[in-house]
């Protein structure tokens, strides 16, 4: 009687472990699929109305706009406005990204023929992470003589992952530096940026090791139980 009970108990354990060994590859696949899902987007997507500001002479300053990140973002490229995308820009433009307190996070020079997306030419950078809820400022150098155009739009359409909060500039003749003077408006649209959004957390390596170990344990246990039943 006892032997029958023990045999039935072992059979039950074997069945459970079989299910576990079958399920573990599915769990592993799910974990791998749950790796970061990302998509690229432009911060500023379109402009309407407003005024163009070409041919600056006699001043060297930085113009741009401030914004709040609504999600955790990874900035992958900095850009500059090109009103006539069929033609190259007239000159290169130094573009920078700062924290709200003036810490420079990234900068690059957008070339006259840098790759074009919409109305902006972009130069790739080493990715920079922005935190949801934090404020940042992007700016572009306006050097003398300045022969391209930047725009102060009547309205601006941004990606939902950011909120444009104000226009930004530094003082005349301050060159490429943090544009700390913030004023109400839709931004001084020379600079722009591209970003990715990570929508899910990356599984930790220890978690994947645990999943692999669980599957291996299940398969090994099933084999051992089968051996017991045949002895």
UniProtKB/TrEMBL annotation:
Residues 58-142 form the DUF4082 domain. Residues 1-40 form the signal peptide. The keyword Signal applies. Residues 201-225 form the Ice-binding protein C-terminal domain. The lineage of its organism: Bacteria, Bacillati, Cyanobacteriota, Cyanophyceae, Nostocales. It comes from the Bacteria. This is PEP-CTERM protein-sorting domain. Keywords: Signal. InterPro entries: DUF4082, Ice-binding_C.
